[in-house]
């Protein structure tokens, strides 16, 4: 067993007074939870670009894309991570 600590990106930014311009998300299935934890940063448009690895076989991929679109981010690029896993896609979103 491995313990872990989690904190939303909004809370981490507020506690550290650090507001990122770029975010990379690679959390193997918890992507929607991560983007939900950065609502304030998305709303305030402090993040310029988001790179997020999404498994296109999972239902959450549409929710993630819609969620980011609702905060004014649009897909500008997508690429298969590796040929042996064609459903794993790296998306890049930028603020409109």
What this model shows, in words?
By secondary structure, the chain is α+β, with helices and mostly antiparallel strands. Helices cover 31% and strands 33% of the residues. The chain has 4 helices and 4 strands, in the order αβααβαββ. It has a 4-stranded mixed sheet. The protein starts with 8 loop residues before the first helix and ends with a strand. The model has no long low-confidence stretch (mean pLDDT 91).
Strand and helix map with partners:
Blueprint: H1 9-16, E1 22-25, H2 31-36, H3 39-43, E2 49-55, H4 60-70, E3 73-82, E4 85-95
Parallel strand pairs: 1-2
Antiparallel strand pairs: 2-4, 3-4
Q: Shape from CA axes?
A: globular
* Helix-strand sequence: HEHHEHEE
How far the N terminus sits from the C terminus, by CA atoms, comes to: 42 Å
Tell me which oligomeric state these chains represent: single chain
Please compute the radius of gyration using only Cα atoms. 14 Å
Individual helix count: 4
Which bin fits the share of residues in helices?
Answer: 25-40%
Strand content: 25-35%
Average pLDDT: 91
Strands side by side in the biggest sheet: 1-2-4-3
Q: Main sheet?
A: 4 strands, mixed
Poorly predicted sequence stretches spanning 5 or more consecutive residues? none
Helix and strand composition category: alpha+beta
- How many strand segments? 4
Compact overview of the structure:
With 96 residues, the protein is of the alpha+beta class. Helix content is 31%, strand content 33%.
Main features:
single chain; 96 residues; alpha+beta; four-stranded mixed β-sheet
